[in-house]
Design a protein that fits this description.
Layout lengths: L1 H5 L2 H4 L1 H16 L12 H23 L6 H27 L4 H24 L29 H13 L18 H6 L18 H7 L19 H12 L15 H12 L10 H4 L10 H9 L3 E4 L7 E4 L8 H7 L6 E5 L7 H8 L6 E3 L7 H4 L10 E3 L7 H4 L10 E3 L10 H7 L4 E3 L4 E2 L13
Parallel strand pairs: 2-3, 3-4, 4-5, 5-6, 6-7
Antiparallel strand pairs: 1-2, 7-8
Helix pairs in contact: 3-4, 3-6, 4-5, 5-6, 7-10, 14-15
């Protein structure tokens, strides 16, 4: 019962804040002769503010014993709240006596309300909540640097924990536990939050994702999407790593090399070891993001893709344009690829690395005319399939690494005038073919893995080894 009363604290606390600040404002304004009449209502406002502050302090005390907030912050907030209540009572008494020293009491009360409110905001929203919006755009770059000996790294300590620290602990750490959840230690992660465990129950089978992964894959606008829309979002590779860790049983003591790795996960880990994105060096978001607005994607289509383990994420904050990755897909049948056609206006970034592409898949791919970045690294794409890519007139970046395409096949995409990045490492193309290939694509940066061919200023080219 006491805990139930304590939960009214967030509702009660705003009344004393508002009425006491208004009383202070009236009191200071009444120093001017033109507003002297306001002084008569100040004592009543202070009395109401004192009573509501007292009730707020009591409910806050009851709430503090029923939550896992940081003890030091709670203590500061609690005593400052009591001090504010006492100061409101003293100021009411001074006004009733007509004391001139009430003006200094008014200034002190404003300071107490401000500092108490700051600590309350820190408890509710986490450290740095007041200044986090002053740094411009939310940083969404990768958390993990290159890890040369990644197979020897501890999965949790080296990969999972850094992601949690950078993306999650601000709301789920020692100073704040939104939803009763902490992600800064093994025991807390296994315990879960108010809504139950965040990791899947082993009884649910190996394909179970658990609540944490489900919320990561929700649309950015969804109420339960994590992290919240205003916070730094996870990259696709980071989501893939967490998804892999969870589906592998969420071990806390295993090394990377001790865990089973499918072809897609090997691609992510290899890219991380080299310090590159799994889809190749990233094109700028500004170039990938069309300037004209677009309607939201059909929710049913997005849901079908996510049910199949496909990652569907917004390309940027407050944007309906999407990036889709099959890195962690559990189903890759033709019907799933046909669903992509429903996202044709919104889909601008697609990763199909290590995929076996059927004729129907290629047909679906050719309809995605808004695509600006396409990664087919390690896929089964052939020279004949490249003909379908001629329809992707907006394509800026194309990754064909580790595929069977040839110089002859690449001739079919030379009409893609917006193409600026072409990744061809680990293909059958010979070194002697590179200069001629650059002549065919004079405005394209061709990455061969061992060296990158620069854009030609004219009709000649110079190949430089790194």
């Amino acid at each position: 019962m006491l805990e139930f009363i304590g939960r009214f604290h967030p509702l009660l606390v705003h009344l004393p804040i508002g009425i006491l600040l208004l009383a202070c404002f009236f009191d200071l304004l009444a120093m001017r002769p033109d507003y002297a009449q306001l002084r008569s209502v100040v004592p009543l406002m202070l009395l109401i503010g004192f009573i509501s502050a007292l009730l707020s302090s009591i409910s806050g005390f009851l709430l503090s014993g029923a939550t896992d907030y940081d003890e030091d912050l709670v203590l500061y907030h609690q005593w400052l709240g009591i001090g504010t209540t006492v100061m409101a009572g003293i100021l009411f008494s001074l006004h009733k006596k007509g004391s001139s020293s009430s003006r200094w009491g008014t200034i002190l009360l404003v300071l107490l309300i401000t500092i108490t409110g700051h600590f309350g905001g820190t408890l509710t929203h986490g450290e740095g909540y007041l200044t986090e919006g002053l740094g411009g755009a939310v940083e969404t770059g990768p958390v993990l640097d290159s890890v040369p000996n990644i197979q020897q790294m501890a999965v949790y300590n080296g990969l999972v924990q850094p992601i949690f620290e950078a993306r999650c602990v601000g709301c789920h750490g020692d100073s704040k536990q939104k939803g009763g959840l902490r992600l800064d230690g093994e025991e807390w992660i296994l315990e879960g939050g108010e809504d139950g465990p965040i990791l899947p129950d082993p009884k649910d089978g190996e394909n179970s994702e658990g609540e944490m992964i489900k919320r990561l894959l929700l649309p950015l606008e969804a109420k339960k999407h994590m992290p919240p829309k205003a916070k730094s979002q996870l990259t696709q590779e980071e989501i893939s790593l967490l998804h892999w860790w969870v589906r592998s049983g969420a071990p806390f003591n295993k090394k990377v090399g001790e865990m089973e790795q499918d072809g897609k996960m090997k691609t992510v880990l290899k890219a991380l070891a080299s310090g590159k994105s799994a889809g190749g060096p990233e094109a700028s978001v500004s170039d990938l993001l069309p300037s004209e607005p677009v309607a939201p994607a059909p929710a049913t289509a997005v849901e079908r893709l996510r049910d199949a383990g496909v990652m569907v994420l917004p390309l940027a904050q407050n944007s309906n344009y999407l990036s889709v990755s099959f890195l962690s897909a559990q189903r890759t049948d033709d019907s799933i690829f046909q669903t992509l056609e429903e996202l044709k206006p919104q889909l601008v970034w697609l990763k199909l690395d290590d995929m076996k592409l059927s004729p129907q898949t290629i047909k679906s791919l050719s309809t995605l005319v808004n695509l600006r970045k396409l990664s087919l690294s390690g896929s089964s794409i052939t020279d004949a399939d490249l003909n379908a890519l001629q329809q992707l007139k907006q394509l800026r970046s194309l990754n064909l690494s580790a595929t069977a395409i040839t110089v002859a096949g690449l001739q079919s995409i030379k009409a893609l005038t917006h193409l600026r990045e072409l990744y061809l490492y680990k293909t059958t193309i010979k070194t002697t073919d590179w200069p001629a290939l650059q002549q065919t694509f004079p405005k394209v940066n061709i990455d061969t893995g061992n060296y990158r061919l620069p854009m030609l200023p004219g009709d000649t080219s110079e190949v430089k080894l790194n």
